[in-house]
Specification:
Elements: E1 2-6, E2 16-20, H1 29-33, E3 36-45, H2 60-71, E4 76-81, E5 86-89, E6 93-98, E7 101-103, H3 115-127, E8 131-132, H4 139-144, E9 147-152, E10 156-163, E11 166-167, H5 175-191
Parallel strand pairs: 3-4, 3-10, 7-8
Antiparallel strand pairs: 1-2, 4-5, 6-7, 6-9, 9-10, 10-11
Helix pairs in contact: 3-5
């Protein structure tokens, strides 16, 4: 279920609420078992545009970056800011695993404070895995990560095994990522009865 709010007509009047419902898409099983590839988007995320860090209907830049990824035969594109800090994927948050610790860019980067992003941070605390969302991340840390994964409310948790031509770890979903994926499945099953929805692993 998607709820879209607008301020109404540009000439004034009452706000508009649009509610649409559709089945969740079916994602390929291999995304979760084998992982996905990503590219670094040629576009950059700035702090000036008011849409960054917000959930909006303005997806044109993200669509262009997704097409760029598709043209290179991979599933997603990662965004950096104009001052070269890691931000997010086209419609997902990004996490790095560095020496057993989990990191995700701070919301002030700016990035969307996704619900699965927050759930993963909570799950890490429950698993005893140190997790941080208050430290800017760079390309050096991205390429030095032993594991990388993306989180989204529809796609769940997707391991990243290649960044451009660079292999992540052993180019297979790593143990920290798999542990978080399992904990996330259990969370969905407890709260929604949807432990496998959006993530067929």
């Amino acid at each position: 279920v998607r709820i879209t709010l607008t301020p109404g007509s540009v000439h004034g009047g009452e706000p508009t609420t649009l509610i649409t419902a559709s089945p969740l898409p079916e994602y390929p099983h291999e995304w979760y078992e084998k992982g996905i590839g990503v590219v670094i988007s040629s576009l950059r995320q700035g702090s000036a545009p008011p849409v960054y860090g917000c959930k909006t209907g303005c997806y044109l830049p993200r669509i262009l970056a997704s097409r760029e990824a598709g043209s290179k035969g991979v599933e997603e594109a990662l965004w950096f800011t104009e001052d070269n800090r890691l931000a997010e994927a086209c419609t997902c948050n990004v996490f790095l695993v560095l020496d057993g610790e989990v990191f995700t860019p701070p919301t002030g980067t700016p990035v969307l404070p996704g619900v699965v992003r927050e759930a993963v941070l909570e799950l890490c605390r429950g698993l005893g895995t140190p997790a941080f969302d208050n430290r800017p991340l760079t390309i050096r840390e991205l390429l030095g990560a032993q594991e990388v994964f993306l989180t989204g409310s529809c796609s769940g948790i997707r391991p990243v095994v290649r960044i451009e031509r660079h292999g992540v770890g052993a180019e297979t979903p790593g143990p920290v990522t798999r542990g978080i994926m399992q904990a996330y499945h259990e969370l969905l099953d407890r709260e929604c009865g949807l432990g496998k929805q959006g993530d067929p692993s």
